[in-house]
Amino acid sequence: MLTLISTxxxxxxxREQQPQPKKxxxxxxxxxxxxxIDQINxxxxxxxxxxxxxxxxxxxxxxxxRKLSNYGSKNKAMSLEQENRKLRERIGELEFVKDFQQDxxxxxxxxxxxxxxxxxxPEHLSDExxxxxxxxxxxxxxxxxxx
Length: 147
Description:
- The chain has five helices and two strands; from the N terminus they run E-E-H-H-H-H-H.
- The protein is mainly alpha-helical.
- The chain has a domain at 85-146.
- A two-stranded antiparallel ribbon has the order 1-2.
- A hairpin with a 5-residue loop joins strand 1 and strand 2 (15-21).
- Helix 3 (58-112) packs across helix 5 (123-146).
- The N and C termini lie far apart (90 Å).
């Protein structure tokens, strides 16, 4: 496909337009296509300006946008899965830290004989610590009788 972009003045001073070929789509790399489409989608440049700047027809740019929109949605889905996996790992780490801290509080209260968790912690955390104490006391009783 040829478009008339550049102009030249002939020897009589008459301007004539020189045909200039459009870029061939098969020669454009995937990175270039995504770069141009990202600029258009992020409103950095308009579709018409991108066509003029890179010498690509508007229909080609529309075609790239349709094709690469599926690629972007697949990429987003993959990144959401990765983010979910990382968040699940982080939740597991935080639950481990919470259990460890609760074990420390239970041991501290055993040693000191004071129940400070009821006084200083929120009610739901204090209840969890009391349940943990009861479980640990049942385990220690069963160990005494089995041993």
